[in-house]
Amino acid sequence: MNLEEANILKILVCEQNRRLPETGLVILTEGNVSQISSNRSFIVIKPSGVEYHDLAPEKMVVVDMSGKVVEGDLRPSVDTFTHLEIYKKYSHIGGITHTHSSFATVFAQMHKPVPAYGTTHADAFGQEIPVTRPLSDDEITGNLEINTGRVICEVLDQRHARCVLVASHGPFVFGKDAKESVDCAAMAEQVAMMAILGQYRSPIQEALLKKHFERKHGKDKYYGQQLDHDKI
Which residues form the Class II aldolase/adducin N-terminal domain (predicted)? Predict the structure, then answer.
């Protein structure tokens, strides 16, 4: 394990976990944020059941890809094995955020995806936010956390998604790093709220949905400040 990188990640992951209550995405001790190391050999994740105002970099937990704690005095989040299942399968995912944010969780509890009604949703997700199938009784009484990761992966195997709702549970949100995953979690909550409050009847036009996502996230994206190196 690269100790220097682990210490840097502890600072970054602590900062992003502390953003969750600041952005209204969690209450009490629920929710968690993690980030994987550059060589994908370990993750840093929030400790289980610790109040957000008590979090500090030295309280973050370093876990290897088998789930073994390799540094830290506290137990890692109960969702650690869910995070690990996702990291093991998708190399483009570098950070994961899980919340029980109110509006997104309403859809998860209804076992319904969040429909794409407008360009705010299109900019962030480019499609509806999908929901997993319910876990079977055997999956629940077996290894709940690993099986939660597996049903998320079932969805991600079928489509590229920046957020997946776990049926009866809540959103798991992905990014290139912890910060991007928290940003995306905030957007997931925003568009879920808009979908519920708006009581819309018609989805956004497919062409508009795709255009707004591609201009921000596609290979020829042109949103934001980007240097044209050919003209420098």
Answer: 11-196
Query: Closest Cα to residue 168, out of 108, 79, 82?
Result: 108
Q: What is the average pLDDT across 6-17?
A: 99
Catalytic residue flag (residue 200): no
CA nearest neighbour of 85 among 31, 32, 146, 134: 146
For the chain, domain boundaries = 3-219
Active site residue 123: yes
Using one digit for the tens of pLDDT, what is the confidence trace for 159-206? 999 999 999 999 999 999 999 999 999 999 999 999 999 876 677 778
Q: Classify 3-219 by CATH class.
A: alpha beta
Q: Which of 64, 90, 123, 177 is catalytic?
A: 123
State the amino acid at position 62 in one-letter form.
V
pTM summary value? 0.88
